[in-house]
Design goal:
mainly beta; 2 helices; about 15% helix
């Protein structure tokens, strides 16, 4: 399995590459006033409005740094009903890949209800690398707000 690596602070994380549609430089976003924490805004991707989460803001409480290695990842976000929506993720140092089998990741033994998207870990020369579960990134009320609101706006 191929993963895209990224950093949140000094720690490494991995997203399944087959969920990534495209890796873009960060673009100017339309902010959403009073949006939930971590929601950076929306942008137009191939003619459609796509909501964007700032992974650094979501996890560390600060916006991602504007660096050349900071990217906007367009991912397929499963809606829980068998469909997918496109979602943008701002991530720092999203420039490398990692090849691992799913069985190479082991559970941490720590349950974090505040970050259910953080999955098992694997290790390499960089240290521990934690799997980010795209499908668990957005709590259902925020998911419904983002995707229902965008669907209404496109009608």
């Amino acid at each position: 399995m191929l993963f895209l690596l990224l950093q949140l602070g000094t720690d490494y994380y991995a997203i399944q590459a087959n969920q990534v549609v495209e890796v873009l430089p960060v673009v100017k976003l339309k902010t959403l006033p009073q949006a939930p924490a971590g929601v950076a805004g929306v942008f137009t991707y191939r003619g459609r409005s796509v909501p964007v989460l700032d992974l650094v803001q979501l996890t560390l409480g600060r916006p991602a740094h504007a660096r050349r290695s900071t990217r906007l990842l367009v991912v397929n976000y499963p809606d829980g009903l068998g469909g997918h929506h496109q979602l943008g993720l701002i991530a720092e140092h999203a420039t490398e890949t990692l090849r691992r089998e799913g069985r190479d990741f082991v559970e941490t033994g720590v349950k974090n209800d505040g970050a259910p998207y953080l999955g098992p870990v694997t290790e390499d020369a960089r240290g521990l690398i934690q799997w980010v579960r795209i499908e668990k990134l957005i709590p259902p009320p925020v998911r419904d707000l983002l995707f229902n609101q965008l669907a209404e706006a496109e009608v």
